[in-house]
């Protein structure tokens, strides 16, 4: 007992272990199995490749396990792969090289995976090999003698079934003391790929003999899902299902949250003494942050579906189906996964581009991702469509409102593709890069890994709501509330609020902006909303609500009526026509009103030039398209 | 070593279902090293599984895995197939 305490708190520094393996090797499942998914997530020094590390106790020894980015070889191609290579070779300043390496290979694809193992062994570091999915080898009628593999390689080999925890106890014991791991007498040839794979083939013949038979279920499924006609239909059906579900299934939860925040605001006003601080809390913080948190269910649902499709193996197939189309605009199949994520939020989408190997295509995807209709645009679309587009039926279940919404989604996606084509033929001109994607067997994803991935996406969104949007909400409240207007007893509360608004800093800013936006059909109040929405698009709605001094800034019906009621003081005509609404919708399709996206673009591209260019390009496009929309709509008498 | 009659072909010319053995991976700047790292080296057997609905990319089975690659990247690979 005393001995254990001495070891735990003794001077010996924790053992540093690193997991290295190709994508789809089961590395992340193994990491979670060993550490219980309590990873500390950060970045590698100087770059924004995600660094995941977790502390764990191996017997009586403290250790840190580093989950390196997936890589097919140690000849770096993508930013992720380069980091993995530099960490294991000790060439990343600020990152200490690991004490020992744990190479991970999928037991069903040894003839490819061992190529990376050869490169790792050639480094001459203490190495242990983990063979994953050993249950699948047997299930498919293959065989593998792990003891023979260990003898031939000259290093310890452990077989595991990561998601079931099989073999983890033995692996933990092995990991306890790398000092006792045997090392190969002679390192395998690693520099020349031909020699490396000749070594792999010889080893494979000695230890395994025959290739693991292919997964017949995967073959049957692929015959349908990758069939020219059936596969395309399934792809279309999956996409329709994805969007239908986020619009219908997420709504009850969103309504509940919406009501919850309204109720909290009402309760706050009842409990707290009337005054500036209560106003800041109820109208500023609760209204602002609440209007954003309402979208959490939609984001969680969309990311659950995307991560599920990815885990099952479908997104790789989808990328295979659409690669040609993306190739026409200078992108590739792998970009599809990022662009799909951008429907939820551009931030995780931009971060997911790290898996794209070609820097040119990665940059193009980063720059056009903000055109995809993210969930922050939804409240704006919902409000304006409900307020101004007539709810007439066009055909069957299709209504005009739904069609306008669909049109906005299509406009965003087509502009993203068009802009990618433009970038690829101008600023990012260059030879098309190679596209390589592995189609792993269909597998049911581990619920724990799925939950962890969804949580990471949701956490990034929550962090945004808790920082930038909280700050913006408070600033906007301040701009709307100061300087304080002197109370006039002759005015009712609504009139008092109007006087306050017109004299406020925000009111003056809106009026200053009016000449620039009048050609688009907007008045100074929309101007205030647009300035506020530069922080985040959804703030437009809560700002307008604050401006219209409706009792409940969360109540879209109230805001909708207020927009309808708004009359020009001089002419008595409605201020907002359908033409204004359409022009505003188009503006939101194009403009890059999202501080977090701009920040992440800067981080991921390593320069402020690209986000600045994207912002200017998108703003110019937004202004031009809104101007044309407004004029054309007016010409049609809308 | 028996002499079998084989035809030397471009990999991109193989039909779905056809298989062959790599004889050379030549000259494709940039992608050559990457293909080699994935195990596209002389003497390796592979098989074309299918072609995407729009004609590109191509799904290939090699070394027990299935990879999708564009025709352009396969241009430089020559294979020999049984005559």
Give a brief description.
Chain A has 638 residues and is an alpha/beta fold. Chain A has helices at 2-9, 27-35, 79-88, 110-121, 134-139, 146-153, 168-176, 193-207, 216-225, 230-248, 250-271, 276-293, 296-312, 314-328, 333-341, 346-352, 359-368, 378-388, 400-425, 447-481, 493-503, 505-517, 524-533, 539-547, 556-565, 578-590, 595-605, 609-635; strands at residues 15-21, 40-43, 50-58, 61-67, 100-106, 127-132, 157-159, 393-395, 398-399, 436-438. Chain A is built from 28 helices and ten strands.
Give a written overview of the molecule:
With 638 residues, chain A is of the alpha/beta class. Chain A is elongated, with a radius of gyration of 29 Å. Chain A has helices spanning 2-9, 27-35, 79-88, 110-121, 134-139, 146-153, 168-176, 193-207, 216-225, 230-248, 250-271, 276-293, 296-312, 314-328, 333-341, 346-352, 359-368, 378-388, 400-425, 447-481, 493-503, 505-517, 524-533, 539-547, 556-565, 578-590, 595-605, 609-635; strands spanning 15-21, 40-43, 50-58, 61-67, 100-106, 127-132, 157-159, 393-395, 398-399, 436-438. Chain A is 60% helix and 8% strand. In chain B, strands 1-6-2-3-4-5 form a 6-stranded antiparallel sheet. Chain B has a single domain, classed as SH3 type barrels. The interface between A and B is large, with 46 and 33 residues.
**Mean pLDDT of chain B, nearest integer?**
85
CATH level 3 topology of chain B = SH3 type barrels
The radius of gyration over CA of chain A amounts to 29 Å
Largest sheet of chain B: 6 strands, antiparallel
Query: In one word, what is the shape of chain B?
Result: globular
Lateral arrangement of strands in the main beta sheet of chain B: 1-6-2-3-4-5
- Looking at the structure, what is the overall shape of chain A? elongated
Strand order of the largest sheet of chain A: 2-3-4-1-5-6-7
Q: What number is the mean pLDDT of chain A? A: 85
Low-confidence stretches of chain B: none
* Alpha carbon gap, first and last residue of chain B: 17 Å
Helix fraction of chain B?
Answer: 10-25%
CATH homologous superfamily assignment of chain B: Ferrous iron transport protein A (FeoA)
- For the report, how would you describe the main beta sheet of chain A? 7 strands, mixed
Query: From the helix content, strand content and strand pairing of chain B, which structural class follows?
Result: mainly beta
Helix and strand element order of chain B: EEHEEEHE
Structural class of chain A: alpha/beta
Radius of gyration of chain B: 12 Å
């Amino acid at each position: 007992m005393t001995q254990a305490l001495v070891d735990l708190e003794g001077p010996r520094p924790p053992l540093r272990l690193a997991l290295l393996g190709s994508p789809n090797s089961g590395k992340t499942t193994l990491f979670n199995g060993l550490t219980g998914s309590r990873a500390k997530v950060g970045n590698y020094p100087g770059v924004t490749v995600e660094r995941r590390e977790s502390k764990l106790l191996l017997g009586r020894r403290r250790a840190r396990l580093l989950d390196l980015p997936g890589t097919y070889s140690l000849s770096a191609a993508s930013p992720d792969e380069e980091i993995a290579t530099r960490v294991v070779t000790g060439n990343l300043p600020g990152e200490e090289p690991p004490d020992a390496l744990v190479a991970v290979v999928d037991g069903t694809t040894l003839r490819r995976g061992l190529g990376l193992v050869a490169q790792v062994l050639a480094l001459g570091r203490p190495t242990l090999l983990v063979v994953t999915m050993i249950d699948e080898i047997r299930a498919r009628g293959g065989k593998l003698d792990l003891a023979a593999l260990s003898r031939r390689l000259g290093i310890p080999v452990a077989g595991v079934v990561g998601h079931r925890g099989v073999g983890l106890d033995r692996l933990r014991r092995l990991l306890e003391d790398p000092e006792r791991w045997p090392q190969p007498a002679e390192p395998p040839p690693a520099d020349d790929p031909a020699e490396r794979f000749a070594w792999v083939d010889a080893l494979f013949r000695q230890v395994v003999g025959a290739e693991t038979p292919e997964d017949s279920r995967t073959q049957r499924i692929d015959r349908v899902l990758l069939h020219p006609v059936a596969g395309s239909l399934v792809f279309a059906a999956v996409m329709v299902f994805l969007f239908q579900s986020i619009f219908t299934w997420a709504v009850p939860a969103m309504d509940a949250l919406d009501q919850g925040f309204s109720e909290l605001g009402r309760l706050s006003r009842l409990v707290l003494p009337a005054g500036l601080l209560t106003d800041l809390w109820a109208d500023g913080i609760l209204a602002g942050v609440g209007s954003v948190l309402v979208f959490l269910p939609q984001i969680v649902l969309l990311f659950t579906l995307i991560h599920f499709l990815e885990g099952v193996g479908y997104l790789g197939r989808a990328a295979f189906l659409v690669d040609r189309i993306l190739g026409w605009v200078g992108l590739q199949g792998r970009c599809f996964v990022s662009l799909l994520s951008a429907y939820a939020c551009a931030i995780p989408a931009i971060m997911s581009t790290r898996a794209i190997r070609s820097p040119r295509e990665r940059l193009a995807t980063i720059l056009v991702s903000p055109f995809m209709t993210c969930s922050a645009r939804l409240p704006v679309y919902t409000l304006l469509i409900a307020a101004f587009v007539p709810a007439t039926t066009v055909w069957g279940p299709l209504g005009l409102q739904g069609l306008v919404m669909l049109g906005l989604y299509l406009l965003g996606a087509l502009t993203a593709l068009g802009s990618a084509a433009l970038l690829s033929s101008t600023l990012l001109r260059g030879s098309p890069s190679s596209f390589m994607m592995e189609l792993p067997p269909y597998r049911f994803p581990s619920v724990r890994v799925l939950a962890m991935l969804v949580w990471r996406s949701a956490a990034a969104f929550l962090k945004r709501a808790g920082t930038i949007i909280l700050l913006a909400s408070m600033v906007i409240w301040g701009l709307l509330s100061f300087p304080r207007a002197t109370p006039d007893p002759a005015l009712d509360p609504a009139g008092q609020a109007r006087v306050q608004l017109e004299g406020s800093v925000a009111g003056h800013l809106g009026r200053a902006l009016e000449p620039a936006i009048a050609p688009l059909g907007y008045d100074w109040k929309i101007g205030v909303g647009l300035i506020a929405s530069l922080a985040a698009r959804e703030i437009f709605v809560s700002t307008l609500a604050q401006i219209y001094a409706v009792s409940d800034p969360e109540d879209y019906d109230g805001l909708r009526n207020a927009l309808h009621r708004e009359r020009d003081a001089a002419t008595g005509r409605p201020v907002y026509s359908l033409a204004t609404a359409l022009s505003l919708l188009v503006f939101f399709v194009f403009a890059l009103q999202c501080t977090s996206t701009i920040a992440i673009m800067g981080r991921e591209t390593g320069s402020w030039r690209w986000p600045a260019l994207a912002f200017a390009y998108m703003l110019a496009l937004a202004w031009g398209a809104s101007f044309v929309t407004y004029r054309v709509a007016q010409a049609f008498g809308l | 070593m028996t002499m079998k009659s084989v035809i030397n072909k471009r990999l991109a010319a193989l039909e779905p279902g056809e298989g062959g053995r790599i004889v050379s991976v030549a000259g494709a700047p940039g992608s050559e090293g990457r293909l080699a790292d994935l195990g596209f080296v002389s003497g390796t057997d592979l098989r074309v599984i299918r072609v995407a609905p729009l004609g590109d990319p191509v799904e290939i089975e090699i070394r027990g895995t299935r990879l999708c690659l564009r025709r352009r990247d396969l241009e430089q690979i020559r294979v020999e197939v049984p005559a």
